[in-house]
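Supplementary Methods, section 5.1.

A reviewer requested that the exact input to the structure prediction be made available. We therefore reproduce it here, unchanged from the version used in the analyses.
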Amino acid sequence: MIETERLLLRPPVLADFEASAAMFADADVTAHIGGTPLDRETAWTRFLRDAGHWSLHPFGLFTVIEKASGAYVGKVGYAHFQRDLGLSNAAIEMSWTLASGFHGRGYASEAGRAAQAWFDATHGLRTACLIAPANLPSLRLADRLGYREVDRFVPNGRDPERKIVVLARDPGGT
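The structure derived from this sequence is encoded token-by-token as follows.
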């Protein structure tokens, strides 16, 4: 578990699923993550992927909890999603998703910096992010976390007009 001033970061547990499913059912959250809210079955599959990742790798996506209220904030961390990361020369991806009620509070930066410090200290690997060009808040966060654009490409099966921004960061980069 990682603790910051306002947040707790820990691997996901079954009790997190309802809040996670509600987060991914929110059109504001999914606007730049596939473009449509997730149904319960798809949210469950994503949740299982995130929870199971920890059993196969010594890292994963942390559940983020607000310390003051105990509320589920979202998830942030690292994963090996087995997908094309463009010209990043990285295999591990940093990812974050916060429930819309927690946007604009600086929680993504706080959780991202804490997860990043942990990952740099324990793994020290180059990482990448894939972000939709219209997702300006995530692009700003990636910049604050030390990521720099290295590529734009169209992932497999996507509309050729919808290129994704690929950003990369070396350990300790800011």
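DSSP finds five helices and eight strands in the chain. These observations are discussed further in the main text.
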